[in-house]
């Protein structure tokens, strides 16, 4: 109770400050999706960004100096995922944002059986930890801002994992959903679309969705979220049922808004 009161008081203080002109310039130049939002949604997004930037612990890694631009860009993409929710989601389980200048090497542990554990390193551009940090590559974020990686955005990807983990550490591709009806439809559509993508990727067929999404249900949600926000009209064209369930979950229909 006391914690909630303190958090509410702190956020009121944060929001008493206006959204600066410099931040506004960064926002509109970085996230093209902002132009599609209604006035109410745009105002909500800016509130979410202010709280996100203020409340997270930010760390620059490998010599990267964090700037307001970096923080606002990351916050904008993260908060776009939840601007359509009927409540204000602040990613309270995300304690820190660690930003590397580019891809980095992460430790990997693999259990191969009978007590044998292999440890090594793997190149990465992002990670999402349960009740922990989100780790991101600034170079890859900049490529998404410049729209040089169609359908891909590492911030959308990793924060989709964070939404997935709102109901537990198991990244199973099913975040908390608002109704049993949506849950039933979600599982039916997601399972069918994942199976279809997996088969197409195994057979070397061209796919709209990145084959990394065929890894498992959790990665499928993250990959489809990237394409939903980065290429909504193409997504709806190639995967109308999948687009529909994601649109209902995220509370946004960017494909329709882009046509207005």
From TrEMBL:
The name this protein goes by in its record: Protein MtfA
InterPro entries linked to this entry: MetalloPept_cat_dom_sf, MtfA_fam, MtfA_N
Gene3D superfamilies in the cross-refs: Collagenase (Catalytic Domain) (3.40.390.10), Glucose-regulated metallo-peptidase M90, N-terminal domain (1.10.472.150)
GO-annotated molecular function: aminopeptidase activity; metallopeptidase activity
Superkingdom of origin: Bacteria
UniProt xrefs under PANTHER family: MTFA PEPTIDASE (PTHR30164), PROTEIN MTFA (PTHR30164:SF2)
Any one cellular-component term (Gene Ontology): cytosol
